[in-house]
Every structure is written in structure tokens, then in C-alpha cells.
Amino acid sequence: MNGTSGIDIVLGLIRTILARKRLILGVTGLSTLAAIVLVLLADSVYKADALVKPPQNEQGSPAGALQDLAAGNMGGIFGSLLGRESGLEDCLNILGSTRFADLAIKRFDLETRYEFRKPGQKPKKYYHADVVKQFRKNFLYEETDEGALRMSMRDTSAEDARDMLAYLIFALDSLYTDIQRTEVRQRLGYIDQRVFIAEMETRALEDSMVAFQKRSNIIEPEAQAKLVLQGAAQTEIRKGILEEELALEASMRGTSSSKYGDLQVQKRLVENTLRKQLEGDQASGAPGTLMPGTRLLPSLIAEYYRLERAYLIRMAVYKFLVQQAEMLKLDAERNIQVISVVDPPWANDKRIAPKRRVVVEAVFVLSLLLSTAFVVAGSAWTRHRRENPSTNALLRDIRTQLTRL
User: Fold this and answer.
1) In the predicted model, is pLDDT for residue 287 greater than 50?
2) Are 153 and 345 in contact (CB under 8 A)?
3) Between 343 and which of 39, 51, 351, 378 could a Cys-Cys bridge form, CB atoms 3.0 to 4.6 Å apart?
4) pTM, whole model, 2 decimals?
5) CA–CA separation, 50 and 55 (whole Å)
6) Are strands 46-53 and 149-155 parallel, antiparallel or unpaired?
7) Beta carbons of 84 and 179 less than 8 angstroms apart
8) For residue 289, what pLDDT band results from cuts at 50, 70 and 90?
9) Range scoring the smallest mean pLDDT among 9-23, 92-106, 141-155, 356-370
């Protein structure tokens, strides 16, 4: 029973379609004809392609020289500032920027070309973001597996598409070069600042060393130490000789002789001299001399060499920084990298849009299906109204209510 009912429904649909075939074919034919006219009148769209190769790394650039410097003995000074992107990543960032789009919009007056503004007419209100959006629909790019960039530009003229793409490659190269120069200036500015700091630190150590020499009178540590030790040794020997003479004088003439008194005076003078040589003039409050005390000599010489060592290290760092900074400045402009054009854009006169055959076939199939569905639905609605008189009454009531409104 159900099978027979299903067959009856299918046969009924076929009879309905055959009965209204002229309407269906007419609608389908008119729609297809209109599609043919529209695709023939629509502007043809062409596409220009190009392949460019951005630098994969920056080892030959000034930033690369800085990276090499960071990998050497000065890594602690420059290493933290040398994090940078590859050439491909820089180019992708440029292509996606509004600045890049604005260059093309201004160069080729895309606001007029995309009909946001018409010459000789009062300009209508539009948003610049819409112009940029339309440009990005027509300008496409993608990264290849080999690390290159495939770029394409669509336009209603094959020659204009080629010219636009050629300019976009030039703009990409210019912006990429500007980025490199900006990065180099920033990093060289940091190096100049670091050189200045190193110079100030070197001067501070020089001043500290001069102040120490003035305060301690340590000018030539080795020569002064030799003289101080020789003088102290001679004084010590002189004291020993006087003690022997005193002992001899006391045994021969006694301690009441005038010579014994003179020898005691000489001994006291020698002891005072030896004490000054051991303790230094600072112990007695006398002005400092070039002969510091023997007991103070080790600490003074150690301080002198400590300051001298720090000064020599700082001076070596300063000289190295100055040398590297000058080398980088000389190589900065010479090592600026450019983008290589592997496949330049050319005027491809093969139309990519509209796809006329696809559009006509799609309109034909769609109009055929819609008109058939409309005919079937209309027939079903007519049959429903005929079989259900209450529906007609309901429709009349609705029509009456709408009329009163």
C-alpha cells in the first residue's frame, strides 16, 4: 500500500512538471540568457605572478656582524639586544602591514580604480579600511616550501596587474631595506652608548689611580720597594754597628765618657730613622714622601696593582669596543641585504575571472531546480486549497484584516 502511494506521488510530480514544462523551460532559459549577457558584459580579470627570494638570514648584514660579535667575547654586552627575525618573517610582516597597502593605493589611485570615488562626481562617503580590504583581496601572497614568496596581483588589465606587482616588489624591497637601516642605527646607537659608558668608567679608574698615587706616593712600586728595603736594611746595619761601638766604649772607658754619650745620641737618631722607615711618615704625622713605611709597603703595592689591573682590563674593553664600533659603522651600508627576484612579473593575458562557463552552467542548473520546485510547490498548494475549503475561508479573513489595516 505504501509502495503504491509513493509511486503515485512520484507520478503526480512528473505529471505536474510535464504539464508546466513550458513555464519551467521559459524561466530556466531566461535566467540562463541573463547569466550569459551578464558574464559577457562583466569586466575580465587578469592575474600577474612573481616569485621573490627574501634573505634567509642576516649573517652578512650589519645586524649579522653584531650577532657574530655577540657570539664572541662580548656576548654578555650585546647578546641580549640581538634577538631579530629572519628576512622572510620581516617580508611577511611588511606585506601584511597597512603602510604597504597605502603605498599601492596612493601610487595607482586605487580609490578611483575600485570605484570608491568617481572622477568628476561628488565623492561619496567611504572608509579607507574598505579600500585596504579590497586591495588585499586582489593582492595575494604565500610562502613556498623553499622559503620564497609567491606574489600575485589581480586587475581588469593584464598590463596594469604586471605594473602593480612590479611596484609592490620594489616597495617591499625598499621597506625591508629601511627596516635593516633602522635596526642598524638602533644597535649602533647602543654600541655608541656602551662605548661612552666604557670611556667614563675608564676615566673614573684613571682618577682613582691618580688619587691613590697622590695619597700614598706610590709612583713606581718596584723601584720604590727596592729603595725602601735597601734604606731600612742599611739603617738596621748602622744600628747594629752603633750598638757594638757602645758596648766596646762601655767596656773600655765606661758609660760616663763623652764618646759613649755621643754614640747613644747617634743610636737614638738611627732608631728614630728606622722607626720612620718601618712605620712611615704618616705614623709621626709628618708629610708623606716617596719612601713609604716598610710595613705599609705590601698593602700599598697590592692596592696599586689592583687598581692598575682593573684599569688595564677596562682600557682593553674600551679599545675593543671602539674598534668594533668603527668596523660596524664602515660595514653598515655595504652589507644591507636586498630581495632577489627569481621570477619577475609579466603580463598574463589569460583571463582568470569571470568563469563564464561555470557561471552559466550554475545558473542553468539552479534556475531549473528552483523553477521546478516552484511549480511543484504551487501545484501542491492549489490542490490543498481545493481539497480544504476552510483554507480559502481563512485566507479571505486574513486578506480582509490586512485590508482594514
Assistant:
1) no
2) yes
3) 51
4) 0.59
5) 16
6) antiparallel
7) no
8) low
9) 9-23
Burial class (CB in 10 A: 0-12, 13-18, 19+), 149: buried
Do 361 and 32 form a contact (C-beta atoms < 8 A)? no
Residues 208 and 307 sit within 8 Å (Cβ to Cβ): yes
Collapsing DSSP states into helix, strand and coil, what is residue 289? coil
Q: By C-alpha distance, which of 272, 280, 288, 281 is closest to 238?
A: 272
Q: What is the pLDDT of residue 131?
A: 94
CA distance 250 to 247: 5
Strands 149-155 and 340-343: unpaired
CB 56 within 8 A of CB 355: no
pLDDT band at 103 (very low <50, low <70, confident <90, very high): very high
Beta-bridged to residue 47, according to DSSP, are 154
Residue 140 bridge partners (DSSP): 152
Q: Is 45 helix (H, G, I), strand (E, B) or coil?
A: strand
> Which of 159, 147, 163 minimizes the C-alpha distance to 52?
147
| pLDDT digit string, tens, across residues 9-33 | 777 778 878 888 888 888 888 988 9
| Closest CA relative to residue 331, chosen from 20, 117, 64 | 64
CA dist 106 and 199 (Å) reads 49
Greater model confidence, 326 or 75: 326
Q: What's the CA gap between 119 and 174, in Å, rounded?
A: 31
Contact 216, 288 (CB under 8 A): yes
The average pLDDT across 171-193 equals: 86
Count of residues for the chain?
405
Q: In 3-state terms, what secondary structure has residue 265?
A: helix
In eight-state DSSP terms, residue 43 is: P
CA gap 360, 351 in Å, rounded: 16
Q: Which of 293, 223, 47 is nearest to 150 (CA)?
A: 47
| 99 exposure class (CB count in 10 Å sphere: 0-12, 13-18, 19+) | exposed
For 246, what's the count of Cα atoms within 13 Å in the CB-facing half-sphere?
Answer: 14
The DSSP H or E segment spanning 177 is helix 158-216
Which sign, positive or negative, has the C-alpha torsion 53, 59, 65, 71? Answer: positive
Return the amino acid letter for 401. Q
Percent of the chain with pLDDT strictly greater than 90: 25
